[in-house]
Design a protein that fits this description.
The complex is a heterodimer of chains A (509) and B (145). By secondary structure, chain A is of the alpha+beta class. Chain A contains 16 helices and 17 strands. Chain B has 145 residues and is of the alpha/beta class. Classes of the chains: A alpha+beta (509), B alpha/beta (145).
Chain lengths: 509, 145
């Protein structure tokens, strides 16, 4: 038994009367917490080594001191009887309860503690044992946790999307301010409600376990997938949403967080975009159709003009005066140029409207067809047209023939003197393509015209030098673009030109 | 006996061109002209002012005509036992696949599109003359009619 004197307690006088007292002392010293024994007037009568360490005092400096020296507030008060209760009753209320207080070290620094009080009957009245635990670390951890939580809550609230957390049964357990706003409910109206009250279809079903999968799997399958659904506001109005689900792992239950985005604006934009696309493709189609019909119908009256001026020339040339002969010549020439122009325009417009499906095609065969079509031109010019083995590509054979034909014809045509030589080759290019080259020894092209020559009606020469409609390369460009490629030219004036274009390799290679 | 050809064509320019081309090819041809489908049928059936019309050895038929178009005329000719043996050649500016298929489906004997160039057109008329009027053996239809 601990014997303590009221008032001037001298620890040295404390007698350890028997074994149990010794055990008590032993227990006290072995305790992981700081232990302080206080009498009913709040004086410290006993403390352990941990207490010395915690508070920075030697034992003899503390014994006999008021407990307020080391715990300024909240301890001593708890020992006092007041008008309504005895000291024993006051103390009894505190037993077993962890009380958080502030402690003061000898050096004046404070630290948070938790104390557990237990009474101890003694000859000198009630003594109180206080187990004092330094909770600095726990406090810091708690504060950190609170901050983290606050940040999470902040994040949740600050999220641009409406966030709704539901449990496995589809009950709403958490919402953010955006969710309140989007759905038109107050938070307390939503919590505990079924998710189907705001998202009638497509969400709850995704949470459900069925014979093939567990609830977790059901959710796992949806993670990260934007699912487009319809949401219902409190006022009964609907709006389109996209939801992203993610599970909140928890040992006991599966919670699912749904980020819900109102996609009304996006949907509206999509509709507008589709309308624009439809309009554009319709107008493109009309335009292509218009060009086709216009050039076909233009050809009819022109055929009359051309045929009759030719008849005139044939029958009356030399029979009228020289002015008449000249006029007839101009008329015949104008009509025939107009005819070529319309025919080229027709070819140009039909690249888009009459194009065939792109199939595996022998570019060598298309090239041979082109050379066949140019037979007369090649023979007349004495041109030397050579080629490497040419690969199979994805192409519309008729258009590929047209492409070779236009490029080779140009190569032969734009010559000043000498024997035109044209060489066609193909080389492997990245992305499973073939890069074709049509190289000539012609007059070449000045660099400033490299882009212009592919435009409609672009001509670099006077009509007396080289005839032509200025559509040939525009047709080439349109054909290549329809095949998903580009065409370009490299040239040195006076030394020839090389036209290059890429085509996708055939699927067989 | 002259060779009788019925040209069904609404464009006077084309009629004259065809006449000129035949004059070059075969001076002995007598070219009759019907300006639309209705007149063509009247001519073939010798109705109205065509009561004395001869039975043609060859019909050159345009497709796009006023009142009754060439497809209807072709269908009527090929459905008529008295007329179906007359070679009927479509001569039109249309190069549309649908027109070609439809014409052969309706038993056209041949489908030709008018070339844009005069000399090519003249060559075509000459080959029509050489093939259908000279080389091809045709039934003695006149006796049947």
């Amino acid at each position: 038994m601990i014997v303590a004197q009221k008032g001037t307690f001298d620890p040295m006088q404390m007698t350890i009367s028997n074994e149990s007292d010794a055990r008590y002392r032993g227990l006290l010293e072995a305790a992981p917490d700081a232990m302080v024994v206080v009498n009913a007037t709040g004086e410290i009568v006993l403390l352990n080594l941990q207490a010395e360490r915690r508070f920075g005092y030697r034992r003899d400096e503390l014994v006999g001191q008021k407990i307020t020296t080391i715990i300024p507030e909240g301890f001593a008060e708890r020992l006092l009887a007041d008008g309504t209760r005895s000291a024993a009753a006051a103390l009894a209320q505190q037993i077993g309860t962890g009380i958080e207080l502030s402690a003061l070290r000898k050096d004046g620094s404070g630290f948070p503690i938790e104390i557990m009080l237990s009474p101890l009957e003694s000859d000198d009245g009630i003594l109180v044992t206080a187990a004092i635990r330094d909770i600095t670390v726990r406090k810091a951890a708690e504060q950190h946790l609170m901050q983290t939580e606050a940040r999470c809550r902040g994040l949740l609230e600050a999220a641009p999307d409406a966030m709704v957390v539901v449990d496995e049964g589809g009950k709403i357990v958490l919402v953010n301010a955006q969710a309140e706003r989007q759905f038109g409910y107050r938070r307390d109206e939503l919590l505990g409600q079924a998710i189907t009250s705001i998202i009638p279809h497509g969400f709850a079903e995704r949470l459900a376990a069925d014979s093939q999968r567990s609830a977790e799997d059901a959710v796992a399958q949806q993670i990260g997938t934007g699912i487009e659904l319809t949401a219902l506001r409190k006022d009964g109005s609907e709006f389109p949403i996209e939801i992203m689900l993610s599970p909140l792992g928890n040992a006991d239950e599966v919670l699912v967080t749904a980020a819900i985005r109102n996609i009304s604006a996006r949907k509206h934009a999509e509709v507008l975009l589709q309308i624009k696309i439809d309009e554009l493709s319709r107008s493109n189609e009309e335009l292509a159709h218009f060009a086709d019909i216009a050039s076909h119908d233009l050809q009819e009256p022109l055929r009359m003009v051309s045929s009759y001026t030719q008849l005139l020339a044939r029958r009356y040339k030399g029979k009228l005066d020289s002015d008449a002969d000249e006029f007839i010549d101009f008329a015949v020439d104008g009509a025939s140029r107009m005819q070529r122009l319309i025919q080229d325009l027709l070819i140009y417009s039909r690249v888009g409207t009459k194009g065939k499906e792109l199939l595996d095609t022998s570019s060598e065969r298309a090239f041979e067809y082109a050379i066949g079509n140019l037979g007369g031109v090649i023979a007349d010019s004495g041109a030397l047209v050579t080629h490497d083995p040419l690969p199979d590509v994805r192409a519309d054979e008729i258009q590929l023939t047209q492409l070779f034909q236009n490029l080779v014809a140009n190569a032969i045509k734009y010559q000043k003197t000498g024997v035109p030589t044209v060489h066609v080759s193909a080389a492997r290019a990245p992305e499973n393509k073939w890069m074709f080259s049509v190289k000539d020894n012609g007059m070449g092209i000045e660099p400033q015209y490299f882009d212009r020559i592919f435009g409609m009606f672009q001509r670099l020469h006077k009509r007396e030098e080289f005839s032509g409609t200025g559509i040939g390369l525009a047709i080439c460009k349109k054909i290549i673009e329809r095949h998903g490629g580009t065409i370009s030219v490299a040239s040195l004036a006076g030394e020839g030109s090389t036209f290059s274009f890429g085509l996708a390799a055939s699927t067989q290679t | 006996m002259p060779t009788e050809v019925l040209l069904v064509e609404d464009s006077p320019g084309d009629v004259r061109l065809t006449q000129e081309a035949f004059r070059e090819a075969n001076i002995a041809i007598k070219l009759h002209v019907a300006e639309d489908g209705v007149e063509a049928i009247e001519f073939l059936r010798r109705e109205g002012c065509h009561a004395n019309a001869p039975r043609p050895d060859l019909i050159l038929l345009d497709l796009n005509l006023p009142r009754m178009d060439g497809r209807e005329v072709l269908a009527l000719i090929k459905a008529d036992d008295g007329l179906k043996s007359i070679p009927t050649v479509i001569l039109t500016t249309s190069e549309a696949e649908a027109d070609i298929v439809k014409s052969y489906h309706l038993q056209a004997n041949c489908y030709l599109s008018k070339p844009v160039d005069l000399e090519v057109f003249e060559g075509l008329v000459k080959s029509i003359n050489d093939f259908w009027l000279k080389r091809a053996k045709l039934p003695k239809g006149r006796e049947l009619g």
